[in-house]
């Protein structure tokens, strides 16, 4: 809420006690609510004064510009060229003048100059040009300059006449402190914080009408649960017009646009008491009766913004003759809105079910100052007070005749909440040594009635205006914040001493990140929520229906992800669109797999995505685009680094529609699927506008549960290694994995490594054949190998390959 310091000062002696706005804001932040900003509307502005237009003549060389002779001080008149549409009728009006050298809100500096040959010594300003946003500038002056009151003194700084010399404290409330969404709540709280006299003033109405309101309007509330309080007054013969300047200043300093005196009064009461109000045109109601009910499923209703809303059965509507005339607590209807022709008004003050108001405002995207307050709670103590004061101001500002009595449909009892508390318990919780008298003083400042119960206990009656307090712990918080958190002694907590450190799961996840980063991948963090289509793509196991949110933030974040790759591809597309060619990303995070229960199973996964080149181009190394074998190598090295025991297999897979059918492999651990690696399908990549991209994803839950190889020191042999090369002619369907497995089967104890260094297929070979060439490395740890030992082992390998694969040794 934007809280006016000057308005606060009318009810509390802040200036008298030398409490500056900045100190006040700091105290609020330490004691009650967070502070977004403290500012003055005049910040950044200079040399802007009140001027009076003496005469207006058309510009001789323009059909839309005018030459204005403007008095800027006693005896000083300057010429200013102005193109505002309403300046032609402005002779004699007081206006906002930015003199030569003035600085505007957007940083523009006004200079003397000539416009189409005519001298111009300044600028006549609209409100927007001195910092007012389009949302709060009155519509009547939307396309023209602003006219100041006739009593504005020429030559004075303009800020005081527009409320721009005020200081605004923009507070950020937690949901439990809905009482602070009003001047009434802020005054009560600050009065208690500073122990200042509370001079808050309410105005009671003197009914000057001749009819009984109950004879003119009937209200029935069939279900008081959805409208615990509903009251109305009837005001006749109102005269719509512009609100006085003091009221407009109150509104626009709070971020609300002034509209007319009737609507402005309801908004003023909303700011003052936190009580949302609505005004109906009495003569446009379908019948002179009001009720509140749930909407019918699919019922149509046109709101004040001229949009047709399709309602659901959970929504709440105010009806007249069973026709909706207002979305309760959210927005009024167009057909019964106050207009220039309105003469008779029905004023409504109510309390509606906060949960239902929140849901309908969120679903229909109709958030407003009113709905925000209904969602957080309304003070039942001031419903009637606010209604009476609104009627008072319509009487004063619109000449209305307030008819006799209030029409009540339902009324929420005003009840205090009795809470028993112990002084010893307060001190034990807060770590203080407060006396009973000190605690009583705090409750006196808060205006909480209490009675003593024994030497140690108090029974505190919390007023209804503080609906956030219901248990003794809440009172402890009130005592702590008014006593001052800074006054509570600092002590170290008493606890058993335990050594800090990471558990095995945390160590594994940390090692995962370190391993992938060491291989050149950069960590990315993407949203866990995405649209339904993205959420079901790239799943390790066959996709199931994903978990959807009941109330998503947006249409792009409706569904919990089942794979991390979709989010990484969004990151790849983002970088590609910004001319980043070489991309190597990984993400470790949770996916959400529905298993049939109320909540999905959360699994820890890791995924990577690569495009372009992993290694930069250099003088001795040409740039090489990433391929399947490079990303497969990263996965193999990662699994090796994590010491995963068991048999790891890479099995070709063509069933994943998002993946390239010839360049994708499932990853199996002891025969169980734990992930996959491969290239994104070219058509899929084209749709995403990304280059050829390779990805992998692994289920870390399966890896963490797998057996690990023991980590032990292995010394490097000091004896020389011996190599032998072998070239085989085999069938084209024979895989490298088969050949390597067969070599190791008969290679003997001294075979240390098998390396494929050549693959050849071509016209010089028989049809259906290919040539594979390997280097076999032999080495002993305790002796130098002899030629016979190596030759015997190598011969066994050759024979085994010939027998099993029918290989031809070349």
Automatic annotation (TrEMBL):
Primary residence: cytoplasm
Places the protein is found: Cytoplasm
Limits of the FDX-ACB domain: 717-810
Listed Pfam families: B3_4, B5, FDX-ACB, tRNA_bind, tRNA_synthFbeta
Domain of life the protein comes from: Bacteria
GO annotation terms (biological process): phenylalanyl-tRNA aminoacylation
Cofactor: Mg(2+)
GO cellular component: phenylalanine-tRNA ligase complex
GO function term, MF aspect, one: transferase activity
Residues in TRNA-binding domain copies: 42-159
This protein's record includes keyword ATP-binding: yes
The B5 domain, residue ranges: 414-490
Binding site for Mg(2+): 468, 474, 477-478
Keywords: Aminoacyl-tRNA synthetase, ATP-binding, Cytoplasm, Ligase, Magnesium, Metal-binding, Nucleotide-binding, Protein biosynthesis, RNA-binding, tRNA-binding
Keyword DNA damage: no
EC number(s) on file: 6.1.1.20
Catalytic function, reaction form: tRNA(Phe) + L-phenylalanine + ATP = L-phenylalanyl-tRNA(Phe) + AMP + diphosphate + H(+)
SUPFAM superfamilies in UniProt: Anticodon-binding domain of PheRS (SSF54991), Class II aaRS and biotin synthetases (SSF55681), Nucleic acid-binding proteins (SSF50249), PheT/TilS domain (SSF56037), Putative DNA-binding domain (SSF46955)
CC cofactor note: Binds 2 magnesium ions per tetramer.
Chain segments annotated as coiled-coil in the UniProt record: none
Subunit structure: Tetramer of two alpha and two beta subunits.
NCBIfam families registered for this protein in UniProt: pheT_bact (TIGR00472), YtpR (NF045760)
Family affiliation: Belongs to the phenylalanyl-tRNA synthetase beta subunit family. Type 1 subfamily.
The protein, known as: Phenylalanine--tRNA ligase beta subunit
Naturally occurring in which organism (per UniProt): Limosilactobacillus mucosae LM1
Gene behind the chain: pheT
């Amino acid at each position: 809420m934007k809280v006016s310091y000057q308005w606060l000062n009318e009810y509390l002696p802040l200036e008298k006690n030398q409490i500056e706005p900045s100190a006040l804001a700091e105290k609020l932040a330490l004691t009650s609510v967070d502070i977004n900003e403290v500012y003055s509307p005049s910040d950044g502005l200079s040399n802007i004064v009140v001027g009076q237009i003496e005469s207006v003549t058309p510009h001789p060389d323009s059909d839309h510009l005018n030459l204005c002779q403007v008095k800027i001080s006693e005896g000083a008149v300057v010429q200013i060229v102005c193109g505002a549409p309403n300046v032609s009728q402005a002779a004699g009006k007081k206006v906002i003048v930015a003199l030569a050298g003035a600085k505007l809100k957007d940083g523009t500096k006004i200079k003397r100059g000539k416009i189409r040959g005519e001298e111009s010594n300044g600028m006549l300003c609209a409100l927007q040009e001195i910092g007012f946003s389009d949302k709060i500038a009155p519509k009547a002056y939307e396309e023209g300059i602003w006219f100041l009151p006739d009593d504005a003194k020429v030559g004075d700084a303009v800020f005081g006449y527009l409320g721009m010399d005020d200081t605004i404290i923009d507070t950020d409330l937690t949901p439990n402190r809905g009482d602070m969404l009003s001047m009434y709540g802020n005054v009560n709280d600050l009065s208690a914080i500073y122990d200042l006299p509370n001079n808050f003033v309410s105005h009671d109405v003197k009914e000057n009408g001749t009819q009984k309101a109950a004879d003119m309007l009937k209200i029935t509330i069939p279900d008081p649960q959805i409208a615990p309080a509903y009251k109305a007054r009837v005001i006749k013969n109102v005269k719509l017009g512009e609100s006085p300047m003091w009221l407009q200043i109150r509104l626009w300093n709070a971020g609300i646009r002034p509209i007319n005196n009737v609507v402005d009064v309801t908004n003023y009461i909303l700011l003052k008491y936190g009580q949302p109000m609505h005004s109906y045109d009495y003569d446009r109601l379908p019948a002179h009766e009001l009720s509140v009910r749930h909407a019918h499923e699919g019922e149509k209703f046109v709101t004040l913004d001229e949009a047709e809303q399709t309602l659901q059965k959970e929504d709440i509507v105010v009806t007249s003759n069973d026709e909706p005339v207002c979305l309760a607590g959210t927005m009024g209807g167009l057909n019964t809105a106050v207009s220039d022709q309105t003469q008779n008004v029905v004023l409504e003050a109510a309390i509606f079910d906060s949960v239902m108001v929140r849901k309908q405002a969120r679903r229909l995207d109709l958030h407003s100052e009113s709905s925000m307050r209904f969602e957080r709670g309304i003070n039942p103590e001031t419903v009637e007070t606010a209604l009476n004061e609104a009627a008072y101001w319509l009487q004063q500002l619109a000449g209305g005749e307030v008819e006799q009595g209030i029409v009540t449909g339902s009324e929420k009892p005003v009840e205090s909440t009795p809470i028993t508390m112990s002084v010893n318990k307060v001190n034990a919780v807060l770590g203080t040594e407060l006396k009973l008298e000190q605690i009583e003083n705090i409750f006196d400042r808060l205006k909480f009635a209490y009675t003593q119960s024994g030497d140690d206990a108090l029974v505190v009656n919390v007023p209804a205006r503080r609906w956030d307090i219901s248990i003794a712990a809440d009172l402890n918080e009130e005592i702590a914040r008014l006593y001052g958190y800074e006054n509570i002694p600092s002590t170290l907590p008493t606890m058993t001493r335990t050594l800090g450190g990471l558990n095995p799961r945390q160590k594994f996840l940390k090692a995962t990140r370190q391993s992938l980063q060491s291989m050149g991948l950069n960590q990315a963090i993407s949203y866990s929520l995405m649209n339904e289509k993205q959420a079901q793509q790239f799943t390790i196991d066959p996709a199931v229906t994903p978990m959807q949110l009941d109330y998503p933030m947006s249409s792009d974040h409706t569904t919990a992800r089942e794979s991390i790759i979709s989010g990484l591809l969004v990151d790849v597309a983002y970088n590609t669109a910004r001319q980043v060619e070489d991309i190597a990303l990984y993400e470790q995070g949770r996916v959400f797999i529905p298993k049939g229960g109320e909540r999905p199973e959360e699994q820890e996964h890791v995924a990577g995505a690569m495009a372009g080149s992993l290694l930069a181009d250099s003088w001795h190394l040409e740039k090489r685009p990433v391929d399947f074998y490079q990303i497969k190598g990263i996965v193999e090295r990662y699994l090796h680094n994590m010491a995963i025991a068991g048999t790891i297999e890479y099995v070709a897979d063509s069933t994943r529609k998002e993946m390239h059918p010839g360049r994708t492999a499932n990853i199996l651990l002891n025969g169980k699927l734990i992930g996959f690696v491969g290239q994104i399908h070219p058509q899929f990549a084209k749709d995403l506008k990304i280059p050829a991209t390779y990805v992998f994803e692994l289920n870390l839950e399966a890896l963490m549960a797998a057996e690990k190889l023991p980590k032990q020191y292995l010394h490097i042999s000091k004896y020389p290694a011996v190599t032998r090369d072998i070239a085989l002619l085999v069938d084209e369907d024979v895989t490298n994995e088969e050949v390597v497995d067969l070599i190791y089967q008969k290679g003997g104890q001294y075979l240390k490594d098998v390396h494929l260094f050549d693959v050849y297929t071509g016209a010089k070979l028989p049809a259906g054949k290919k040539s594979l060439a390997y280097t076999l490395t032999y080495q002993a740890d305790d002796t130098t190998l002899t030629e016979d030992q190596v030759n015997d082992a190598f011969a066994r390998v050759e024979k085994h390959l010939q027998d099993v694969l029918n290989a031809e040794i070349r």
